[in-house]
Amino acid sequence: MEAVRRPFVLLFFVGLICSSSLTFSAIPVFAKERSFEISEVGINARIDAEGNMWVTEQDTYRFDGSFNGIVVQLDTSGSDGIDNFQAFEVTSQQEIPLVVEAASGKGKKIKYKVYHQAHDETNVFRFTYEVKNAVQVYADTAELYWKFFDSTNPSTLGAVQIDIKLPDGEAIPKEDIKAFGHGPLSGTVEIAGDGTVQYRVSPLPPEQNLEVRILFPASFVPNSLKVNHSPMLEKIMQEELKWANDSDNSRDASAHPWGSTLVYAIILLAANVAAAVILYFRFGREQKPDWNEKYYRELPGDVTPAVASYLMDYKIEPRDLMATLVDLVRKKYVDMQAVTKEGGLFHRDQKDYSFRLINELTDGLKPHEELVIDWLFRQLGHNGEVSLFEIRQYAGKKANAGKFLARWSEWQGKVVQEARQLGYFDTSKAGSRIALAAAIVQIAGFLIFAPDDVKWLLVCAAPLFLCGMKIKRRTKFGATERSKWKAFKRFLHDYSQIASREPLAVHLWEHYFVYAISLGEAKRMIAISRINLPQTGSEHYTVYSTVTHGDFGRHYDHFADSFNKTVSTARSHAPSSRGSGGGFSSGGGGGGGGGGRGAF
């Protein structure tokens, strides 16, 4: 064993030096390169009676720098080929056909280069193609088992929506359709009333599978030529159930043969932590803002509360949804009323809040604000009205939890997209690429060259891998705007102690209050409303009137808690899919298809 360990130890240090060299030498190469971002991917797929799949995909690219076009890589594995690939640029007036160059790749991969000159702009592209014989027919079921993206995808995809229409889907009983998703555990699967299977993931990290598996009666693809007369339904269901259980239940950590290799683990782990720290200070440390005062006494920018919240902490919380809804009240799109929900014989009456849509014209709203209106008032509500109790009750039902989380994830994605479009965040991926490349070199080295009893050392690459996934920072502009918002938060927090303060006008108080919700200062704003604000004309301001003339201040914690519990309840009721909808599982990988998206 000692003879085996000597070359391994030598190899280990060589690999370590190579990884470190990669980290340091690569820094100037990527620091100033161009970059692109794929913020949205929408895929509509239709299965016909022959078992072919007709795909229409629409991707939104944001380019920083000059590019000659985009790359669409597809994989024909598990099918009889891909035909009729076409690409278009989508504008507000028309679809413009684009020149496409196809080239065969490794195995059954096809690489399409779509030519389109772009420089510092956002473009929408649409692709259409046909997958021949994508459906496999068995004796007791038909199966679509297809990867739309796999480990070869190099790009982060912001928000992915896949809708798959089955042949004559309205005629298929919903209980006869079984749908599963394989990929990030944050993904959701839903079966709509018309038989359309809906997959939602936001975001999809690079090099991760997004695989769909749908079972439906074979009688709906009567002309399929891809037939296997063996029964497979029970075997597939057992396989998916196992993967779902594996994803739902936490697993005990595997035992590792530490022994004498512990010293190697400590050295390698320390080296990787050091490399991750260096990469963070080079690519992830916040830039110094151009403005840095204690107080900012007016709104720092014309952005929504949710966007301001994401700029502050890279997070979107349930309270940001609450702030968005209250802001729609302030903007006169929605009316808000305090109501009393009767508790009955054995329970006390409870305070609730009802919201009514009073303006259907949403042209002046941001996409994430429009989504809130469509989601809460048209999907959840009745006749344009919805209450906090109804929202929470809807999300608390297991049958609705997946749908609620899908919309919540979609809303978060649109908020992030809006924040990125404002130029708050550095879109360069240099630090991530360096860290991931170093981690992959180490992992591959251990898998290929190391003896079996020390292969577990590959876990020491985790700091680099996590660094590559998480490293991000704001631009100089973003750092400056964040500094202003932090100063504005301090202004709200210390308002009652500022000696030179003047009473706020009611319309300013309302405007500030919606941001105070996202910034965590709402209760202080409620307190100063009682002592500092002139009352004249306040009846024309719905938010101010509701907050100050009722019990809103006393019930604010309940009001805020309703939003927190609504989302947490939906999460707890959305397990990995057992076929009827729900969350993704981490299994799969055996389906056809695959590929990724990029630019050149």
Describe this structure as you would to a colleague.
It holds the Pfam family DUF2207. The chain crosses the membrane at residues 262-281, 430-450. By secondary structure, the protein is α+β, with helices and mostly antiparallel strands. Among the domains are: 36-247 and 588-599, Immunoglobulin-like, CATH 2.60.40; 275-285 and 441-470, no CATH class; 305-422, no CATH class. 39% of the residues lie in helices and 24% in strands. It is built from 16 helices and 21 strands. The protein has helices spanning 2-25, 27-30, 233-248, 262-284, 305-313, 318-330, 367-380, 388-396, 398-421, 430-449, 462-470, 476-493, 506-519, 522-529, 542-549, 552-572; strands at residues 35-47, 53-64, 66-75, 82-90, 95-97, 100-104, 109-119, 122-131, 135-137, 142-149, 157-165, 178-182, 188-191, 197-201, 210-216, 334-341, 350-357, 385-387, 582-583, 592-593, 595-599. A 9-stranded mixed β-sheet has the order 5-4-8-2-1-11-14-13-19, with helices on one face. A hairpin with a 4-residue loop joins strand 4 (82-90) and strand 5 (95-97). Helix 4 packs parallel to helix 11, helix 5 packs parallel to helix 13 (506-519) and helix 8 (388-396) runs parallel beside helix 16 (552-572). The two termini are 49 Å apart. 39% of the residues are buried. The model is unreliable at 1-32 and 250-259 (pLDDT under 50).
